[in-house]
Amino acid sequence: MAEPTKDSKVSKAAEFSKAEEPLVATPNVSEVETVDAASETEAVAAIEAPVERGEPILQVRNLVKHFPLTQGILIKKQVGAVKAVDGISFDLYQGETLGIVGESGCGKSTVAKLLMTLERATAGEVFYKGQDITKLSGRALKAVRRNIQMVFQDPYTSLNPRMTVGDIIGEPFEIHPEVAPKGSRRQKVQELLDVVGLNPEYINRYPHQFSGGQRQRIGIARGLALNPEIIICDEPVSALDVSVQAQVINLMGKLQDEFNLSYLFIAHDLSIVRHISDRVGVMYLGKMAEIGSDEQIYDHPTHPYTQALLSAVPVPDPEAREGRERIILTGDVPSPANPPSGCRFRTRCWKAEDKCAQEVPLLAVPERFVGQDTPAAHESACHFAEEKDVVHAA
Amino acid sequence: MTIIDKTAFVPEPRSGGDDSTTLLEVRDLHVEFHTRDGVVKAVNGVNYSVEAGETLAVLGESGSGKSVTAQAVMGILDMPPGKIPQGEILFRGQDMLKMSNEERRKIRGRKVAMIFQDALSSLNPVLSVGYQLAEMFRVHEGMGRKQAKAKAIELMDKVKIPAAKERVNDYPHQFSGGMRQRIMIAMALALEPDLIIADEPTTALDVTVQAQVMDLLAELQREYNMGLILITHDLGVVADVADKIAVMYAGRIVETAPVHELYKRPAHPYTRGLLDSIPRLDQKGQELYAIKGLPPNLLKIPGGCAFNPRCPKAQDICRTEIPALVPVTEQDGAELPGRGSACHFWKETIHG
């Protein structure tokens, strides 16, 4: 690939970002009922209030995260931005599992960090029970953080090797002592170990004494410690062996029923996402390409990227390999610092026309399917959305 | 640009081949590592063979010995601590373990080449990719710098790296993951070897890129009529490309079978467990089947069948007697070519 020099690339990026503003809202998401909390106490009360099953618990609107690219050592001048997340909107309902899939670099992990308020969003809102958590601070933010917990990808690096399991799982109680008073902590940790299927007597062991699957159980126990309502799982099983993956997936399903949790499940393994998710969102280069129920996405995908992604997944059935149609995309994902104009997928898309370079497609039910009662009528950000059955066998 | 390809991965009919000797045959290979904690028995009597143009998939979890076997074949095991107490690795009928280092060097790279899993850490970050590719020609063929570089560009074209001429002097970090893996493939292909060992070649890649890379590998294999040993834990990839499969567990092959047979009728409880733990459409919302327990510690492999603590069918005999890899037959005794199972109860597993 002959690439232009860095400078011209960056100035181009700046132009694009100007041209694309203002970001268009997704037309199809539900209304946000905001809560106007006058004081911090009211805000905390609103956060602690329960949500009915099936009601939206987390509403993300036009979320944007740009990481600045700077030049110069002393005087840092911003010369561009990596547009990791560029205006995505979705709802997470109470008690459901929303799967997010996409290739590496598409911004799915950045979304997780933004929802955890580990990163500050450049623009956009995240409403947790009607409160915009990007603007909260103090006690209210602390209460939100207690209710949104995370399970990380790599169980080998996300546990401190110098702390015992008891200390690791009990650490959240130091910050939120109201959940477990000092005297009962040890017992609480042992209960948690029991819940995730580990022997409570292992409380004094260190992480290196456990296998990968057991460590991921420890990570899950830590996530559960504060009785959260939402757990964000960032590739929770991709570092595990096949035979152990199923154990952890089963455990997560069991815990969801037991503790009434909502999951945001980020992964790149499409078959596991399908198994665990109620709804699935497909991300490409910082944007949501398509979102819908698992059946709508897997059996009736309308976005060419989703179709290509699904057709590329190897099917564990040798009978299927002869007749199977595979869409093999050429090239790599473009750099998020300099995304293509218009539709971001157009550089790799076989349907791309001039319109795709000029107009950013909205994430909406495609016009041709509006009002129809077909599973193809779900939100898809493509000008030429059409149904294509790519995974008949699976 | 996108290619919609309906026929990818369909293996060509195999031609007879001029020499009748097997390309590679591993016989009763044992590998152990002597560590401070004791002897780790990583490979305990592995047998497999590959013919020219054939793809053998070695399937197993981490710690099953699949990569160690490959390293022993390549002759790149760290010895010590590694040790090969017994076994034979026959390449075209000659035992590579009995060869001198000089002789092995001549085979390594030229006849048998390897593609490693993690392209970023397998490429030298301070040398340009062109230099690293050309090294094969300079060292093995004694070519001059210029000529070797021209060859390197040719290779990069071959693995479909766009603008190869301009990119030949770029460094590994300037390439994306898929492109790096292509360079690894190019390097393995440089001297047109007879056999390629691919150790999890696509594990670190995204599915769309994985499809590109596997496609390329299959195409090149057909072109050169190479033997391919594909080491992986991905049952999907195996179903797509393999001709025959060897399933490994705790350093032993527990089942061998042609690809269609294995998926249809597994003859070992471990294989069956692996296949059952793949999420399937009709099981949505239910519990996934999970093999209980953990893979064994190779310092103390359980007595008898190594799978017995996790096996739903285990009986007393499984705890005392190591099952041999025996040929699997139909119920009426008809032979099933290429099938074998190391289970005392293979009959019950496959037929009932």
From TrEMBL, chain A:
Record has tRNA-binding as a keyword: no
Stretches assigned to the ABC transporter domain: 58-310
GO molecular function: ATP binding
Similarity section: Belongs to the ABC transporter superfamily.
Region Disordered, residue ranges: 1-20
Designated name of the protein: Dipeptide ABC transporter ATP-binding protein
InterPro entries: AAA+_ATPase (IPR003593), ABC_transp_ATP-bind (IPR050319), ABC_transporter-like_ATP-bd (IPR003439), ABC_transporter-like_CS (IPR017871), Oligopep_ABC_C (IPR013563), P-loop_NTPase (IPR027417)
PANTHER family for this protein: D,D-DIPEPTIDE TRANSPORT ATP-BINDING PROTEIN DDPF-RELATED, TRANSPORT ATP-BINDING PROTEIN
Alphabetical keyword list: ATP-binding, Nucleotide-binding, Transport
Keyword Transport: yes
Automatic annotation (TrEMBL), chain B:
Domain of life of the native organism: Bacteria
GO molecular function list: ATP binding
Residue ranges annotated for the ABC transporter domain, each copy included: 24-275
Pfam families: ABC_tran, oligo_HPY
Main location: membrane
Subcellular location, record wording: Cell membrane
Membrane topology: Peripheral membrane protein
CDD domains per the UniProt record, alphabetical: ABC_NikE_OppD_transporters
InterPro entries (alphabetical): AAA+_ATPase (IPR003593), ABC_Ni/Peptide_Import (IPR050388), ABC_transporter-like_ATP-bd (IPR003439), ABC_transporter-like_CS (IPR017871), Oligopep_ABC_C (IPR013563), P-loop_NTPase (IPR027417)
Keyword Ribonucleoprotein: no
Keyword Cytoplasm: no
This protein's name: ABC transporter ATP-binding protein
Species the sequence originates in: Streptomyces huasconensis
